[in-house]
Please model this.
Amino acid sequence: MADNSPTPDSFVAPSETPVSAPSQAATAFENDNVQAVTIGDSARDYLNRLRGGDMGSLPAILGLIVLFVVFSSLHDRFLTTYNMANLVIQAGSICVLAMGLVFVLLIGEIDLSAGVAGGFCATITALAMIDHGQSWWVATLAGIACGAVIGLAIGSLVAYLGIPSFVVTLAFYLALQAGPLKLIGAGGSLRYDDEVLRGLTLKSVPVTAGWIAACVIVAGYAALSLWQYRSRSSRGLVHKPLALVLIQIGVLAAIVLGLTFLLSQNRAPNKEFFNISGIPWVLPVVIALLLFWTFVLNRTRFGRHLYAVGGNAEAARRAGISVRRITIAAFVICSSMAAVSGLLLASFVGKVSPGSGGGNTLLYAVGAAVIGGTSLFGGRGRAIDAVIGGLVIATIPNGLGLLNQASYINYVVTGGVLLLAASVDAISRRRRSAAGV
Amino acid sequence: MSEPLLELRGVNKSFGVVHVLHDVDFAVYPGQVTALVGDNGAGKSTLVKIIAGIYGRDSGDYFFEGNPVTVHGPRDVAALGVEIVYQDLALCDNLDIVQNMFLGREETKGIGLDEVAMESRARETLTSLSVRTVKSVRQHVASLSGGQRQTVAIAKAVLWNSKVVLLDEPTAALGVAQTRQVLDLVRRLADRGLGVVLISHNMTDVFEVADRITALYLGRVAADVPAKDLTHSQVVELITAGRSGNLGIAENPAAATV
Model:
């Protein structure tokens, strides 16, 4: 690796560097692989990061806990497994849309058209099945391809013409609503009753299969993080302490297995007559997308370049990264994910109407991404942020619905939450730049 | 004297009617720090951008290791082994040191990134430059001081086995101790056999590390001499008046046409 460099001592004599070898510096770098040896050190690191404004998903998790405590104390049916399964199904389309938006937010852009793009693509899918008799998967692919084309158009306009994405996507937001209105007709709607697509939110994974999948995920995560720990520690690279790795595996196992257990119970309100049990199909879809995009963001060159463009586009350009190509790719991913989200929403509602994906859909998803810890200023965000934030956003209408609140309350609360999340983002950003974390 | 690593001969460059560089000869020698000095508007930045391949030349030749080369863009120059560390650093705050050093040239294993190899190489490079001031190679760049950021930017240039490194005002925004670190690093680069070009306004820094000084005056080379043959005040005269004693541009050239 360092075959070109001469032996280290030929150009470095410690005595030559009188000032650059103060006590702290001389030892610190060589020992950086043990920067956090113990749980205590890790906890201190984490607290320092929090204090510096790097809060990640913490506000979202705290918010989720608060919402759960409040709603479960106000209504006894909130915490039933039936409602929890409902929550998962309702959150599905928000999470997917927010995951797509993370890509656009990462590079410091915004896509206001993602919601209606989802509605448009769902219309295409429904028409492909109803009018053209296509099978569900051809229709789904058509819908997603339609999303990709929309993203390509938006991305090209932003990247090549340099129009602010806010304006481009606002124009698309307005124009794309014309599609379903023309294709479906005002006041009409398309039924959405394909076995598979409707089943995504209506049906559940068989209980045994659910358990197997849950165990595979936990075992896979454990194997991967232990392997990573071993290979990094044996090479003396920066790594987490073993205890922390084990705790993380334990937490993940508790969440995954606990959720599987809850959803494997018979959750029918009328248990003598019906048996509804198993994980709703929408959850594996969300998890598969989450794993895939997490891999792309953290482990591929493309993902690294997305962060670089969001962090400092000029630096990325000088490093030979094609900023335009990254921008276009981000919009393509966002609109394609919007298509998936539109399908999930249509599956949940059971129909596509001209208003699908309009209204609050997009702002819910932006709110979800931002609450989860994705920055509106670019450069920070993860796929998991979108999922956690999506749960928070979905919990609000779910709980308020149980409480029979008038729908205006719903608007006010969701707007407040979005504003709160953006404030947290702005404040933590300011603290970060002050603390330099 | 040994053969220059990189040499420009008789370079002219105009922007419209403004003739910015007049028959400029410039050479970078291996193992030496060449300081490029000149007042604002003397043509330093233009010369650097021509070396970097960002600007084309109107006339003149570009030699690398004694061979004439054709340069069409920054990529050609990078392929030769010439790296430029710009004043505004070009680092991503939201990425850590390793990620920044490999930005745009990440190593991959299969479809994924090879973090282990990248981190090991980054660590080796920093150690070989005896950079001891960063706490961890996984630190985010946002948390580094100005001197540390400059160090990372320079180490990034060295990582790619480059032969010539151009540093544009590397100490302009730094404090005393950090300037010290960066100058030490500049010296070590030259001691490794690299050709280093230091563009600076700070005469103390220049005399501290430079082996040769090339002074530009209104787009002409006023002097290209070993640093030990010059005094502080001579360099200032060369920069401000284009001549100093028997050095410099002999007759008042057609400076008025510039």
User: Anything to note?
Assistant: The longest helix of chain A spans residues 407-435.
